[in-house]
Specification:
The protein is α/β, with parallel strands linked by helices and about 220 residues long. Helices cover about 40% and strands about 20% of the residues. It has 8 helices and 11 strands. A hairpin with a 3-residue loop joins strand 10 and strand 11.
Amino acid sequence: MRILVVDDDRRLCAVIKRGLLEEAYAVDLAHDGEEGAYLAEVNPYDLIILDIMLPNKDGIQVCRELRAKKVNAPILMLTAKDTVEDRVKGLDTGADDYLVKPFAFSELLARVRALLRREGMLKSPELRVGDLILNTLTRQVWRGQRPVELTTKEYVILEYLMRHPNVVVTRTMIEEHAWDYDFDSMSNLVDVYIRRLRRKIDDEKDDGLIQTVRGAGYRLKAP
């Protein structure tokens, strides 16, 4: 899943990004309201973490504009303002949740998970496609009775495929979900990771779960 963090505190952004990357999220950063609004409009984010006090364009205005343009990704507002009026104003412009600075990173993670569940993306912690099982809480993967050890990026790509069984997903769709804005779309990293997943999950069998759809992308075949 891909998250946009918009905050002019670069140190805080770096801390949030590092923590989210450790939780297997792809993360983009923006440090002013105009840049944040632009990225949110052109990229398919699963969640936006948005500070209110921003240069060029404040978070309230950014939130209002995004909702007017039908950008429906959940928005978690961060701010040092903690009055009831401030919270109401943020929520009334279209934000989904509100977290006051300073905050514990564990609470930020809990709110991120809650917002993603609310969007129906994490209804069950366990995903199943045939005898392939993935637990989104423990990040454990099993093929039948065999545990499968994955890197963080392999896990992110597999989770995406398992959330779209029998659907052809393009390389671009995988790139947008699993990598941040700086990813080089001309590289063959997607193909490299798919080959690694095949070795670990399918033992490179021709009739394995992960199928190549020539000229289109990949598909996880469900029974």
